[in-house]
Amino acid sequence: MMILSLSVAVAFVGALVPCSLAVPLRIRADQVGTPGDATFDYVVIGGGTAGLTIAARLSEFASVAVIEAGGYYQTDYGNASVVPLLSLTGIDVIDPSETFPHRPEIDWELVTQPQTNAGGRKVHYAQGKTLGGSSALNTMSYVRSSASAYQRWADLVGDNSYTFDNLLPYFKKSVRLTPPNLTKRNAVNATPEYDTNSFGAGSPLDVSWNNWVDPTITWLAKSLQSIGLAINPKGWSSGQLNGGSWVPSTIDPAHATRESSQTSFLDYAAGNTRLVVYPHSMASKILFKGTTATGVSVNTAGTTYTLSASKEIIVSAGVFHSPQLLMVSGVGPKATLESKSIAVVADLPGVGQNLRDPVSVNVAHFVSTTNAQGVVANPVTQPEALRQYQEDAAGPYSSAAGYISYERLTNELRSTLLDTTRAALAKLPSDSPEVQFIAGTFLWTNGSAMGSMSATICNTFSRGSVTISSSNASDAPVIDLGWFSDPADGDVLVAGIKRLRQAWASDPAQSISLGAEVIPGDSVSTDEQLLAFVKANANMIWHPSSTCSMGKQGDADAVVDSQARVFGVQRLRVVDISIFPLSIPGHPQASVYMVAEKIADIIKKGGGVQ
Ligand SMILES: Cc1cc2nc3c(=O)[nH]c(=O)nc-3n(C[C@H](O)[C@H](O)[C@H](O)COP(=O)(O)OP(=O)(O)OC[C@H]3O[C@@H](n4cnc5c(N)ncnc54)[C@H](O)[C@@H]3O)c2cc1C
Ligand SMILES: *[C@@H]1O[C@H](CO)[C@@H](O)[C@H](O)[C@H]1NC(C)=O
Ligand SMILES: *[C@@H]1O[C@H](CO)[C@@H](O)[C@H](O)[C@H]1NC(C)=O
Ligand SMILES: *[C@@H]1O[C@H](CO)[C@@H](O)[C@H](O)[C@H]1NC(C)=O
Ligand SMILES: *[C@@H]1O[C@H](CO)[C@@H](O)[C@H](O)[C@H]1NC(C)=O
Fold first, then answer.
1. Predicted model pTM
2. Does residue 6 surpass a pLDDT of 90?
3. DSSP-derived 3-state class of residue 157
4. What is the mean pLDDT of the chain?
5. Residue limits of the Glucose-methanol-choline oxidoreductase C-terminal domain (predicted)?
6. Element (H or E) spanning 531, and its range?
7. DSSP readout, 195-246?
8. Is the four-CA dihedral 526, 527, 528, 533 of positive or negative sign?
9. Which residue of 589, 591, 593 sits with most ligand 1 atoms within 8 Å of its CB, as the best mutation to test the pocket?
């Protein structure tokens, strides 16, 4: 999730992003691969969120190579990718406009096809190209989905091991939870509630709550509570997404630094020479003997070589690149492959289909309360904030995302929907959340504080796709997000804006609001105007999924089975967000770590060698 998709906020605090950060090389020198042919038990393509997780677990009992296109984000991007506050304001590459800043050392610089139902916009879609992948750029919210979403997953793939209760051990396995430090948080109205049964004695991924609470967000939280979104005493890790909660984040609370798959799982494997990482290396093709995957063609700074797998190859290249790699290697829709003169290894029509990308809009007012960015932008208060951060891992710099709510639309708003939207929502389980509200705050271009609440769809009905422009993996994949191709998505967002206007009209929000609504603005009032606003302004929250969907053999969209094995070939799995069979409510990274743990365990137990 990102609270803001507004580049103005980024531009304003850009001056804060400080100098170089001394980063120790986290893995031993003899764990860095030397370009040249070599053989491992497992070869993992992509050292991102899922890739480093599954690689670290497999290296407990086997030899593993990881091929990663990027290097260390701490060196390549400095504090922006490390300091929690900067995850909201300093990650400049999240700019979705076509004039986004170019940072090829950490971002893939993908730009989509024009979104014909969203004003013809071509959007820049940031994706981490670094050890840690998108966990190095994300907003760090750690939110599991609802039990009913995992039940749908289990039903879609025909495997009961995907129910929430059966997945819980794999969620617990990764996470080292630190309870909130209420002294540091110093906000009586912001005590996080959570269910201790949802966590265990896991590791190595640190999850915690911010060591500082943004004052503006406490008022926005109260406003959401006052319109009926009560605090959920179980929080966002127990399979229930309804009401409101202070969100846990992947932050190391002792240092108040970003926790990514690199600082957790790669660190965990440091010193274990069964794990070898090939950084700054591009996987260009999966090699097959017949229909059995045998190796990967790799390019490191112009040197081309083959990493062979004696057991399996695991593709963890993310939502856009995993389907691309399958296609350039001969696994995908036959007509697409033949049109690019790629020899067909397996005709698999679902590869790259079923892309789901939830969209979001903001409702914002100027506010009288301060916020973290205001404290650190003020030369009078900044030095103390820096001291708090450096000496006590506390204060505004330690603070990332804050407060999230979920709900099913009220009957009043449901009655305003199109019949077709109501029918689509009625097919979802009765406890499925329909809209997510995120309380956020930022500085306007002139330095004034703004409060912003966003509405995000929880179930994406629109479908997009990923395909290839050539047989060369170095050519960017062709991405159509499919935004608003199903009218239900825009319809739900219009209702979401109406609900946020109710929140802004509440006493707690009115007590801090200065003047009229700024975004969308009072002149946007009829349903037609609201829908036009939504289509022109909605943006991603960087949760795209499902381009190599898990499913039952023969289903149109199905690319992998419930053990993540690619249909039609042998010794090849895909393990990352692309295999989620649906767009799950909540935030995806918790489930990305979980699914990597689960598949690693299946492999360890000897399951599923084809
Ligand atoms: C700006 C932003 C904010 C977000 N906020 C949140 C949030 O707050 N909470 C949340 O839960 N989720 C959030 N997400 C989403 C979450 O981070 C992703 O869903 C998750 O990280 C995806 O993991 P993955 O393993 O599928 O892919 P990635 O982590 O992206 O990993 C893919 C890896 O493969 C590498 N790769 C790709 N192709 C090749 C190739 N050919 N050769 C070699 N390497 C290759 C890439 O460099 C990358 O390291 C956010 C994402 C972004 C971008
Ligand atoms: C960022 O890194 C530099 C160099 O290590 C450091 O001096 C600076 O204080 C850091 N900024 C913050 C906000 O921590
Ligand atoms: C909580 O924060 C306070 C204030 O910084 C600190 O003194 C205390 O040690 C912290 N408690 C824990 C358990 O870390
Ligand atoms: C910033 O702009 C807004 C809207 O024009 C205005 O209300 C506010 O007073 C301005 N703030 C400053 C500090 O000038
Ligand atoms: C693939 O594209 C890259 C980047 O444009 C280029 O350097 C490389 O030569 C191409 N590979 C082939 C096999 O054409």
1. 0.96
2. no
3. helix
4. 94
5. 461-596
6. helix 527-537
7. -GGG--S--SEEEB--SS--HHHHHHHHHHHHTT--B-TTTTSSS---EEEE
8. positive
9. 589
Contacts with 54 (C-beta within 8 Å, 6 or more apart), sequence order: 44, 314, 316, 575, 596, 597, 599, 600
Q: How many CB atoms lie within 10 A of CB 56?
A: 25
Report which ligand 4 atom has the smallest distance to the Cα of 515: 7
Query: Residue 442: beta bridge partners?
Result: 450
CA distances from residue 486 to 137, 338, 503 in whole angstroms, order as listed: 29, 30, 27
Give CA–CA dist 170/591, Å, rounded.
9
Task: Identify the residues whose C-beta falls under 6 Å from ligand 4.
Answer: 366, 444, 446-448
Class of domain 211-247+359-459+484-537: alpha beta
* Under 8 Å between Cβ of 262 and 73: yes
Instruction: Give the residue numbers annotated as catalytic, written as ranges.
Output: 543, 587
Q: Beta-carbon neighbour count of residue 532 at 10 Å? A: 16
Please report which confidence band the pLDDT of residue 3 belongs to, taking 50, 70 and 90 as the band edges.
Answer: very low
Structure token digits, residue 425 = 């929502």
Bridge partners for 437 per DSSP: 405, 455
d(CA 324, CA 466): 7
Q: What residues does each domain of the chain span? A: 211-247+359-459+484-537
